[in-house]
Write a structure and sequence with these properties.
3-stranded mixed sheet, 10 helices, single chain, alpha/beta
Length: 303
């Protein structure tokens, strides 16, 4: 129990220390357009103390449906909180090059139901520790692994290719990598569908009336599905044991060809549980351009 509490404390410190210049917090301003519509501007650096519900309340009181940003980043957890609030409220996000959205701000931006951005307005780079974070090496590694898994899960939840995280980690924290229009579309940073024009999908037919199965999906589509599953699998397996094993219980069928021999789901889960108990701190990802593989868990981070 003490070990668990210590890890939770370390993780809390990491959330506060990642991109540490976020003490002031963000302000939410209203921009009135000539046609009477209102756009919400989230300005400043995200702080752990920021309340995402303030954005939701501003949207409800002003009738604003679009959010834009003027932010160099800030606290990662706070930015994700704003992104989830934006998605939950069905708001769209727009970013102009005159006001950049960089670093952790990108996590808030991708919360938009529909996302539009000018080239060069979205910037990414590595997260970093403050000089006085006070974490020893092993504690920092454990916390970074957990945060990386959370970031991957968040990006996939928002419909963003988790390879965006790989691109971010390839850019030093003191530098910035601004995305082109093609890159934003490729990684899913832009796109989506505005809630105001969302298409209602028909309810699938019941098994009794379901139509015969059509032809197999094209190779490209099947590969995309496989890569998406592999990314979700590794993101889940990088989480703490409880969450990881819960995902594993849904990832396999009742009978599995496990290391070349037929095995029951329970046997597979027992193997996974034993592995998780032996190696409770894990961080896996799919390396772009290869078959499913494991990437080094800590090399991209500056600790």
């Amino acid at each position: 129990m003490l070990a668990v509490l210590r890890f939770v404390a370390i993780l809390g410190v990491l959330w506060a220390m990642l991109v540490p210049t976020a003490w002031a917090g963000v302000a939410i301003e209203q921009i009135s357009l000539s046609d009477g519509k209102v756009i919400l501007l989230v300005k400043g650096e995200f702080a752990l103390s920021d309340d995402p519900t303030s954005l939701t309340q501003a949207s409800m009181s002003s009738g604003a449906k679009i959010v834009t940003f003027d932010s160099d980043g800030g606290n990662v957890a706070a930015a994700m909180g704003f992104g989830k609030a934006i998605r939950s409220a069905g708001l769209d996000t727009v970013q102009l090059r005159a006001r950049q959205c960089a670093s952790a701000c990108v996590l808030a931006f991708v919360g938009g139901s529909k996302r539009t951005a000018e080239p060069g307005s979205i910037g990414v780079h590595q997260s970093s520790f403050s000089a006085d974070a006070g974490l020893d090496y092993s504690s920092a590694v454990a916390a970074v692994q957990a945060v990386t898994a959370d970031l991957m899960a968040y990006l996939m939840e928002m419909g963003v290719d988790p390879r965006l995280l790989q691109l971010s980690l390839s850019t030093a924290s003191e530098d910035m990598r601004y995305l082109t229009s093609n890159e934003m579309a490729q990684y899913g940073v832009t796109g989506g569908q505005s809630s105001a024009t969302a298409v209602v999908r028909p309810v699938p037919a019941s098994p009794a009336t379901q139509q015969p199965m059509g032809p197999a999906p094209p190779v490209a589509e099947a590969r995309s599905r496989a890569l998406d599953f592999a990314a979700r699998y590794h993101a889940a397996w990088s989480k703490p044991n409880g969450s990881a094993l819960a995902f594993m219980a849904t990832a396999y069928s009742d009978t599995v060809d496990f290391y070349g021999k037929p095995s029951s789901l329970q046997d597979v889960l027992n193997e996974k549980r034993a592995f998780a108990d032996r190696w409770p701190q894990r961080a896996y990802s799919v390396r772009s351009g290869t078959n499913v593989s494991f990437a080094p868990p800590i090399a991209p981070f500056q600790l």
